[in-house]
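[job 4417] fold queue: 2 targets
>>> target A
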Amino acid sequence: MAIGIGINLDYVRHADKDFEYGARRAAELGYEYVEPCVSTGRDLLAEAGYYHMLSMEDDPLAYKELLHECGLKVSGLSAHSPLMKPEVAVPYLTQAIRWAADIGAPVVNTDEGPRGPWIENDEEAFDIMRYTLKRVLPVAERHGVYIGLEPHQIYTTKLDTYLRLLDLVPSPMLKANFDAGNAFLAGNDPVEYLQAVADRVVHFHAKDISIEQEEAERGKVTGTPVGCACGDGVIDWPAVIRVLREAGFDGVLSVECGTEEQAERSIAYLKQVLAEA
């Protein structure tokens, strides 16, 4: 099956660059796909051109035209909103799904979010998340856009509760956006964890973790915004690719790194691994 290589626009966040710069630079580096981050409302830094976040109040077709000009496609939208806060997640995700359909993104990526102190126990948390998913999944089904749940918080980084979440509401549009780096930092073997959910994966965050970050954070956190360059860290990428191919995955490896230089090294390394696998 074909596996594409894309990049999350967070790679230009610390450079204070806007979306257009990040997209054009990704194309220059040889990426086929980008994963935009979207928000409701307006962001002052983004409006000033210092941040890559896209407002869903803008016209998605304008960005689709820009990406077409660059020879790029959208692998998915990063639209993280906490499933345990339905007052946030329901309007955010329903708008993101409609926006994704217009820009041509097959999946909207999110997670369960932190569990607030007003939630007394796991059963209450899952009841709230079921409500959120029951509200947004019909929208996803109508628009043909997946919701990709990412390992990022307390429930998605434990296999039993991740599987429970993926089965919480019966829908063909509820899938996994797997993140190798987050799974590793939470204390899992990322290859074994991937094997358990590989048939549900529709989008993949290619996030590597440096040895320094492993020593400082593994077992203490459930995720991190970006990692190091793919191939520079601890993730066994040949094994990851093997598991994905055996599962018939034909989606995109969306690199999550912190700099343009890491982005350049990541695509060179992943192309090599895909060619040799």
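>>> target B
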Amino acid sequence: MATIGLGINLEFVRHEDKPFEWAVEKAAALGYEYVEPMVHWGRELLSEAGYFHSVSMLDDPYRIKRACEKAGVKVSGLSAHCPLCKPEISVEYLKQAVRFAAECGAPVVNTDEGPKPSWTTEEEDHVLMRYVLGEAAAVAEARGILIGLEPHQQYSRTPDGLDRIQQLVDSPAIGINFDMGNSYLGGEDPIAWLQRVRDRLVHLHGKDISMQQSEAERGKVTGTPVGCACGDGVIDWAATAEVLKQCPRDIVLSVECGTVEQAARSMEHLRPLCS
């Protein structure tokens, strides 16, 4: 039986105006064993000034490693979302994210196909994605890093669509980072879909969807940045945990919520289900 680790995407402090290190310490204080940092290219004002949690890939990867060691937590993966349909962005971004992950101790790099160009066809987009994933997989295989493809955009919003993207490149490095909330908002049954990808799962986003958001957006959007506290929304977390325990590898359930208070309540709800 697989072990379920409880982690949190650091977007839970997105409105706290605090730096990366503060977010890691807060996650540890709430009882989380893993964190999922977000990385970006270049430099930007908020992170440089210490008002946002994202880490530049121009920083030393050991910044993440040292912060996590100090707080007593581990890295479940890097949030490195980039538009796979736009190779002029994604080839070098994903390759750098994989190298960064290998140095900071993150076993998984999470991404999705992202917004597509306005002028390309569906078939052209899949050729572009095949090129990006082929380049990234070659770098990932050499370093033992996994790439987690997430249901989040126009093609991955259905089970068949996500499978098609994953099968574009035959690589053991490419798996699934399943998102419970995005799959639900796309109009699918998240438990049935999770069961379908169980053997290919490398990471899980624990995103719950409030009843209000469900009524307003289900079937109309391809995803959402963060959810409500796990246990406050429509996702069946007991059933989710049972599927995860059947996975061939240990899985981190990385909570995606929008506030520190929601992160605390998510931990309270999930801990007894995942033990």
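[job 4417] complete. Note on B: The chain has a mean pLDDT of 97.
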